[in-house]
Amino acid sequence: MPIAELFLGALLRVLFERLASPELLKFAKMLISINQVLDDAEDRQLINNAGVKSWLEDLRNLAYNIEDLLDEFTTKSAEKKSKAKPCTRKVCFLLPSCDFILSPCAFMSNCKMRSKIKEMDGRLKDLITQKDTLNLKENNENRSAYRPQDKPLPTTSLPESYFISREDDIRKILKLLTGEEDDRTCADLEVIPIVGMAGVGKTALVQQVYKEAEENNYFDVQAWTCISDDFDVLAITKRILQTTTKKFDSKDTDLNLLQIELKENLKGKKFLVVLDDVWNEKYEKWTTLLKPFQSGAKGSKIILTTRNSGVASLASASARSYDLKGLSQDTCMTLFAFHALGVKNFNHHPHLRVLGQKIAKKCKGLPLAVKTLAGLLRNNVNPQDWEAVLNNKIWDLPEERNEILPALKLSYLHLPFHLRRCFAYCAIFPKDYEIERDELIRWWIAEGLLEGRKEKNSRWNAERYRIALAN
User: Fold this and answer.
1) Mean pLDDT of all residues in the chain?
2) Cross-strand partners of 305
3) Minimal CA–CA distance to 387: which of 399, 372, 373?
4) What is the pLDDT of residues 131-155, one digit of tens each?
5) What's the CA gap between 321 and 338, in Å, rounded?
6) Calpha distance 339→436 (Å, rounded)
7) What is the dihedral of CA 165, 167, 168, 171, to 10 degrees?
């Protein structure tokens, strides 16, 4: 995916400001009509829509051509002004993104400029025609390119066939579930968020906890449902109700009746409900979902897994979230050996041990990455193939063989558009490059990626953006 495509929104915003004149208003309006569909276009090119990718590339080239034209005119105007009247503001005029305002008359009276504008006007009209042909939609809150074919399979409560380590994590979470109750009432339902980055093993861990709780009869009722990015209160209520009762009409679409039935089924019972992969940050939806659960007995718990610390804060006022870290190098090696060779170590394959260590190290403690790369080498003991996997960037793998990209794609798509641009900008740095905070902020400001025209506002926004991306 060309990184430059992600900067179009910021670039077009700068062009709007510099085209603010009656003579160029029509041109600016056409740019605005394109800017309104950029979010949808970016989403659709992420799912490999060739037509949209080509359209974005043409738009990117045009946007840069327009900016080059404006820079050329700005530089010539600054030189002319400098010769006519030298002053201390010369430096400001040499920086196109400063306070310099184009003179429409001067701009349009230049024959060369008029010719270029005419040519770009034609290209822009063609892009608008293609925009309508591609059926690109204007920005809306519910847009998402994450189509069902891109999603990983929904998870179940059944645990992994081979699960290693995490004994300490399991013990701590079980203690949160079964520890002695305080003076909390049944109305104070406790939610325990398990927070961690994509691929760190949140679901696999909770599957083990769920199994342990079930085998030891810690709860009267247990239910598991995978949420993902579609927080549909009606659908979630149905799935949980289906687990708690044998008499269930799946055709029922009355949320009120379904919640009343679920409330009666849970009344006086100590339950455990797992909500896996939660993204919802709308408090109203969350409180609506929880209504039936207030009837449960003291000690009832809800576990949710999420990558988003904001979701955890929203769901749990008690702030008892559990942050899950990556696996150790030794554990990654054991997991890698199992999924690649079907054994628990490299004792019978010493010639692969060093390569296995290097590959496992690249996985940075993420079991999903370990399983993905090990799966590529399943029952393969050819060192050359292992070397190829070691030297191959995981991002270059075909999507159908890469479980990590869909997981990370969802994280990216849930970023606000202005944060996407700042995040994508970091891709220009070499791998493992240490980025200084203040230096990065200055680059964001210089590229026009921040909201707020004044430097003070830009720096304040930059710090907010940096903190949001870090979380």
Assistant:
1) 78
2) 194
3) 373
4) 888 888 776 544 444 444 455 678 8
5) 31
6) 38
7) 160
Predicted confidence (pLDDT) per residue in 188-238, tens digit: 688 999 999 989 999 999 999 999 999 999 999 999 999 987 899 999 999
With residue 223 as reference, give the H or E element that holds it: strand 221-228
| Max CA distance (Å), the chain | 88
The answer to whether 24 touches 16, Cβ cutoff 8 Å, is: no
Apex CA 208: angle with CA 153 and CA 360, to 5°? Answer: 70
What is the residue whose two structure tokens read 């010369």? 90
Return the closest-CA partner of residue 292 out of 233, 347, 339: 233
Exposure of 161 by Cβ count < 10 A (0-12 exposed, 13-18 middle, 19+ buried)?
Answer: exposed
| 296 closest CA partner among 331, 264, 327 | 264
Task: Name which of 88, 8, 72 is nearest 41 in CA terms.
Answer: 8
Helices 329-341 & 353-362 angle (0-180, nearest 10): 120
Tokens encoding 211: 């199994």
* Number of helices (H), then strands (E), in the chain: 21, 5
280/285 Cα distance (integer angstroms): 8
3 state SS of 226? strand
- Report d(CA 257, CA 413) in Å as an integer: 34
Specify burial of residue 143 (Cβ count, 10 A radius: 0-12, 13-18, 19+): middle
Q: How far apart are CA 409 and CA 172, in angstroms?
A: 31
* Residue corresponding to tokens 């992969």: 277
The neighbouring-strand residues paired with 272 are 222, 301
What's the pLDDT tens digit per position in 345-372? 999 999 999 999 999 998 889 998 899 8
**Against a cut of 0.90, is the pTM above it?**
no
Rounded Cα distance, 405 and 412, in Å: 10
